[in-house]
Amino acid sequence: MKKRITALAISAAMIASSVGAFAATGFSDLNEFHAWAEPQIEEMTTMGIIKGYTDGTFRPDRAITKTEALVLVARVAGYITEGYDTFKNVAAQRYADVVSVYSTPYPNEISFLLYKGVLTEDDLAGYLSPDRADSPLLRYEMAVLLTKLMRAEDSLNKSGQITLSYADAGEIPYTAAPYVEYVTNTALMQGVYDPEKPEAISFNPYGSVTRAQMAVLLHRALDKFEISVSYYSVLGKNVANNTITYRDENGKTILYSIKDGVNFSVDGYKTKSVSPVAAGASMAFFYVNGALADVEVANVEASRWNGVESSTVFNPTEPIEGIITTIVLGEECSVVIDDVEYVLSAASTIYVNHVAGTVYDLRVGHSAKLEFAAGKVIMIYATSPSDASTQIVTTEGYITKVNVTNRQIYLEIENTTTGVTSERMLIIETGAAIFNGISGQSIDFLSLEIDDHIIATGTIKDGNFYASKIIVR
């Protein structure tokens, strides 16, 4: 189930400081001079992003300090998202030594911003050093923070040819100019009107950001930056294919493959490999504006990763026995027993009820004995109890043929270890969910074409693969 930042704000822990300790509306010091910001102040305090004071005031004209700004940006970035405590704890542990250099009362929020990439370690001194932490946040600094919050830093204009129409454009720090251009073009920040110079609009880069202004700016950011999170538990992994298996909200077993453009981290460390992932780990899919942005894994304490890539590979030697809970079909097939994924050798021998068979004859619920060589399964002895069921399976490959009449497609599946390719026929169920994996849009069966790279999920019945979901990559 996805959890959204807007669903829980009031339940966030109150911080008894100038960041705010009174999350209520109807502040006594808001008057007609603050009408331009009052709706946003009311909404942001109701959400728990920015809070008032215990005396019932909001103090809209007081300048926000750099430390306070970081706390508020952390909340908008997802710090108060429901159910996210496991991952916040990982962030706090990961960056504890880094943040401890600064005597900030908010180490967890700062760690979270480092964890989410809104800040880098090099940024910290500019916000948290003793001579800066309690100084006002300046408007050009707000432009930088908003750009990083929106994950837009990589898309900035880095040509050096930046044209800003502000009357004081020449006063904007050179390094901040691309950020100011971004927030201007996206209407996150606007110029400042000077009644004495009505013909000129300035950016006022060195002006302080007030609490009222902060409420408005963060409200604009939230309008463009919707966050939601889905939580799962890891069933197993396939190091060779760089995939993770997990069970979704409907109880279906899903195979996740590491994707370009999606940040993948384990225990707070960014990585491109599933090697550090342990069975039973917590996993969060972090969406920004409906698109998957981060996949975060938090191992249990005993399996916590230290960020050092290891060449150690799980290499079972003794036979194991157990109940098959998941079967994965792909370039390399695998089975999951007791939350551990075991990869089958290309030459695996499989017996089901004492009869020679294939991986397609295995079922979830089978009792199985596995034998190994070189870390892979070379022999499976499976027996079928009365509760063995048709398994949910996933396979991946390139379409070689499409039979529109019979709703059949044929996939070429290559074993990257042996180079051997095989062809598998899939029957597309009526009503199957078919999606474009890039746009996320639903597409029709007739849109499938030869050479499309797909991931199909479905069931095995009588040796045939019936696909109920297809993602075109």
What does this structure look like?
- This protein has 473 residues and is of the alpha+beta class.
- It has four domains: 2-224, no CATH class; 231-303, OB fold (Dihydrolipoamide Acetyltransferase, E2P) (Beta Barrel), CATH 2.40.50; 320-383, OB fold (Dihydrolipoamide Acetyltransferase, E2P), CATH 2.40.50; 392-472, OB fold (Dihydrolipoamide Acetyltransferase, E2P) (Beta Barrel).
- Helix content is 18%, strand content 31%.
- The chain has nine helices and 21 strands.
- The chain has helices at 38-47, 66-79, 85-94, 96-99, 107-115, 124-128, 139-149, 177-185, 211-224, and strands at 2-4, 192-193, 201-202, 227-238, 243-247, 253-257, 263-266, 269-270, 282-288, 291-298, 320-328, 334-337, 340-352, 355-357, 367-373, 376-383, 392-403, 408-414, 421-436, 453-461, 464-472.
- Strands 1, 4, 5, 6, 7, 8, 9 and 10 form an eight-stranded mixed sheet that branches. A five-stranded mixed barrel has the order 11-12-13-16-15.
- Strand 18 (408-414) and strand 19 form a beta hairpin.
- The two termini are 24 Å apart.
